[in-house]
Fold this sequence. Notes:
TIM Barrel; binds fe (iii) ion; alpha/beta; 277 residues; two-stranded antiparallel ribbon
Amino acid sequence: xxxxxxxxxxxKGYLSIAKETVKINANTFQFFTxxxxxxxxxxxxxxxVESFLAYAKEHGIHQILAHAxxxxxxxxxxxxxxxxxxxxxxxDLRRLEFTPGNCYNFHPGSHVKQGVEIGITYIADMLNQxxxxxxxxxxxxxxxxxxGSEVGKTFEELREILDRVTLSDKMGVCLDTCHVWDGGYDxxxxxxxxxxxxxxxxxxxxxxxxxxxxxxxxxxAHKDRHARIGEGHIGKDALIRVVNHPALRHLPFYLExxxxxxxxxxxxxxxxxxxxx
Length: 277
Ligand code: FE
Ligand code: FE
Ligand code: ZN
C-alpha cells in the first residue's frame, strides 16, 4: 500500500487536518509545528488530540510528519538564535509526545560564513541537548538543496551530524527529491546509484520519509524551488519510479508542491494510479 499525503496547514488543529487528508484520499500528512515565521504557539488542545487519534486509527492514518519552522537555524553564528532554535525544537518534541511514535523533520541550518564543520558541530550539539532517551519521536534531518550556506546538501554532511549524536537511534533522514536533485544527485537517470550511495554513506535504514517534489531548476542548481509533479526538471516518470523503488516504496511520501487541495488530490491520485501492487 502506498502511504502518501501532502503538507497541510495546521491552523484548525489535528482533527481538521486529518479530515482534509481523508478527503483527498491521502493516508498521512505533514504540518508545521508552528508558524514558520513566528515562534509563538498555543498550548495543545488535548480534546483535539484525542479526537484526532481516534479518527486517525479509524481512517488508516498510521503516521504523520511534523516539520519544524524552516526559519530556525541551529548553526547560526548568533548564540541567541541557536538557543532559540534549541528551545523551540525542545518544546516541539515535548508537544509531539502527545501524538507518540511519529517523526519530526528539520532543516539542519545555514552556517553562513562559519564553514560547514562549525555548522555541523553546532547542529549535533543542539541535538545532544534536546534528545531524550524516553522520547518516542524520531528526529529527521532533511536533505538540502545547498542554497546559500545550507548544511546537509551532501549525504556525507548528514552522516557527520548523525555520527556525533549520542542518542543515535532517535535520528533519521528525510529525503527531499527536489533538494537532492538541486544538490546534484541525478535521481532521474541514476536513481539506483543515488540510493546505493545513500545506503553506503548514511544507510537506507535511516531513511524514514520522502518529500515528493518536482524542481523548477536543473540538476545541481542549488536553488530549492519546488514544482508540481510533471511541471519541473525531474518529471512525472522519474517521480513515479521514486515511489515504486524497492528501497523506498514502503516509506511515507509527502507532496510539498505548489498546489491547492484539489491539486494535491490530483497528484495523490496520479501516484496511486501508478503504484505497482
Ligand atoms: Fe523542509
Ligand atoms: Fe522538503
Ligand atoms: Zn524545499
